Automatic annotation (TrEMBL):
It comes from the Bacteria. GO terms for molecular function: transposase activity. SUPFAM superfamilies: Homeodomain-like. GO terms for cellular component: cytosol. Residues 15-55 form the Transposase IS30-like HTH domain. InterPro entries: Homeodomain-like_sf (IPR009057), IS30-like_HTH (IPR025246), Transposase-Integrase (IPR051917). This is Transposase IS30-like HTH domain-containing protein. Pfam families: HTH_38. One of its GO terms (biological process) is transposition.
Length: 69
C-alpha cells in the first residue's frame, strides 16, 4: 500500500509523489525514457516529473556569502 498526502486548493488537488513513484522515475530515466513518456506512464504532469528530476539530479550551488572575492 502506497500512502501519499493530498492537498487541496479551491480548484486543484495536489498529491505528493510516493517513494515508489520516485524510484520509477529514476529507473525509467536510466532506460532512456523521456520526461514526457515517464509522465504519461505514471499518470502525472510533465512539470511534476521535471521538478522531481531537478530536485534530485541537479546539484545545488553553494552560496558564497561574505567577502571571499
Amino acid at each position: 500500500m502506497v500512502l501519499t498526502k493530498k492537498y487541496t486548493t479551491s480548484s486543484r488537488t495536489f498529491k505528493h509523489l510516493s517513494e515508489f513513484e520516485r524510484g520509477q522515475i529514476y529507473a525509467l530515466l536510466k532506460e532512456g525514457y523521456s520526461q514526457a513518456e515517464i509522465a504519461k506512464k505514471l499518470g502525472r504532469h510533465r512539470s511534476t516529473i521535471s521538478r522531481e528530476i531537478k530536485r534530485r539530479f541537479i546539484p545545488k550551488r553553494e552560496s558564497h556569502t561574505g567577502s571571499d572575492h
